[in-house]
Amino acid sequence: MRRCSNIPLIQSRDHDFKCEAFASCDCPELQCDPLDLEDVYIALAPELSPFRFQEHLDFILEASDFDEICRLLVRMQALDQRRQFGTREIIKGCLLQLIGTVCELFGAPIKALAEDNAPQKSRRDALARMSEYVRQNLSDPELSLKKAASAAFLSPNYLTHWLRKETGKTFSELVLERRMHLARTLLLNGTRPVGEIARLCGFADEAYFSRRFRHAHGLPPGQFRRQAEPEWAPEIFRKDP
């Protein structure tokens, strides 16, 4: 079993099977956002364990166990091709049997990871990767949620959810905040023209940059710089951008 974009991909001799984590409707007793399932204690939903810890474990099976998994997958595939009343429940039962087998085989490392709060550490690591990517690409006008999520090895939905949960901000708000901070630093430390500062902060349009800066700080960039200049500043620092 290997991981593909946060979805376990089970490779058989003839087919690949994607096994997506249960949505909240499959575990109604949990009553939580599907994107927060990794925070659920494994005792409450052990069937989620392989999905929660897929980043930390390679679920490599012995031949006999793999044959059993393949048998279940083939049966689910056959059932899916002739669906009728009750088929969904039978398929779900096969899936639970498959997941239960994996949980039984990897019970010890799964419990160790749960006790070590591995998902929370993974979240912090992923957000750190995203933060570093944004820092290195802040001047790129094409910086996007999709690119940052890819750099963090997350889906855009997960990154959006985790950012909101950890910082209370959206990705766009976070990027704009950092760009405005960089703009202030450049305006107050040097004589670069506003147009150049706009480009260094990832704005292709100087007028748009000025509007965003004024909205954030109450003053256009040039006036912000002039008001921040000390009275003793030499003439070279008083150039009107």
UniProtKB/TrEMBL annotation:
Keywords: DNA-binding, Transcription, Transcription regulation
GO process annotations (BP): positive regulation of metabolic process
Protein name as catalogued: AraC-type DNA-binding protein
Organism taxonomic ancestry: Bacteria, Pseudomonadati, Pseudomonadota, Gammaproteobacteria, Pseudomonadales
Domain HTH araC/xylS-type: 128-227
Any Pfam family: HTH_18
Origin superkingdom: Bacteria
Provenance organism: Azotobacter beijerinckii
Annotated Gene3D superfamilies: Homeodomain-like
An MF annotation (GO) of this entry: sequence-specific DNA binding
